[in-house]
Amino acid sequence: MKLIIAVIQDKDSNRLTDALGQGNFKTTKLATTGGFLKEGNTTLMIGCEDQYVDDALDIIRDNCSKREQMVAPISPMGGNADSYIPKPVKVEVGGATVFILPIESFVQF
Amino acid sequence: MKLIIAVIQDKDSNRLTDALGQGNFKTTKLATTGGFLKEGNTTLMIGCEDQYVDDALDIIRDNCSKREQMVAPISPMGGNADSYIPKPVKVEVGGATVFILPIESFVQF
Amino acid sequence: MKLIIAVIQDKDSNRLTDALGQGNFKTTKLATTGGFLKEGNTTLMIGCEDQYVDDALDIIRDNCSKREQMVAPISPMGGNADSYIPKPVKVEVGGATVFILPIESFVQF
Ligand code: NI
Ligand code: NI
Ligand code: NI
């Protein structure tokens, strides 16, 4: 049995949890950084049998890979807001750091 | 030596930490979800010798098992508050997800 | 390969992360307790080859060991603030709890 620890971006968290659930993986979600005040990380722990580790990693890759996204920049403070036309910028979002650990046992009470 | 990672409900956290301390287990408490703004999980990490793992699991089971609790519902907004008699409802609280991992060493500075 | 899980004080977090980065260690920072509302812990996860574990532990010890610090106490509420001369008190700060775990693999997406 293995424990998969995946540190992902908050914004990918619900999609990944749903996808893992559809694949019959049980996930335990740890606290995220800063709640609604600040974008942060979510840590998921997934206990699974050895033969399903690759499937879980596939699901993580499909839902959390680094990718580029167009984002509307914050309009500058002060300045002439009327004449300011926000130009979307490319930012990199997503990404996952994943550790696979051997596990002795897994219990639920 | 083993590392026990226990994800439990916030509300069981202090009771469990106290009980583990009385059993001479050293616990390290990770962040909980959302602070006072939202009920969340607490993750405890417990490093212990192999022969004490069962004792630790007993303490976790005794303090965190799933159980039913009667809770007074929130009174509905608007409506006639005077004539509203809140009827307690049963909810399931508690529960623990526990991973037991082999560990190479444990250090404190 | 090993996974080092280090639970340290928030206040040592940036210094340690910088020092580990200078040593070419990749760190993953988990959520801290309570955000800006409350001093808390930070958990760092460091995946590294076996031969570098001692180096990582040295860096953690150098940046997070328990030490004494003089702190100006909060002035008492009420009372005569004009005549109150705060006397710095010694408090213990820092400290690290570190678990070293065997790891099967480490992936980044
Ligand atoms: Ni968040
Ligand atoms: Ni909480
Ligand atoms: Ni903090």
TrEMBL record, chains A, B, C:
Top-level taxon in the UniProt lineage: Bacteria
InterPro entries: CdAMP_rec (IPR010375), N-reg_PII-like_a/b (IPR011322), N-reg_PII/ATP_PRibTrfase_C (IPR015867)
Name under which the protein is recorded: Uncharacterized protein YaaQ
Biological source species: Oceanobacillus limi
Lineage, highest ranks first: Bacteria, Bacillati, Bacillota, Bacilli, Bacillales
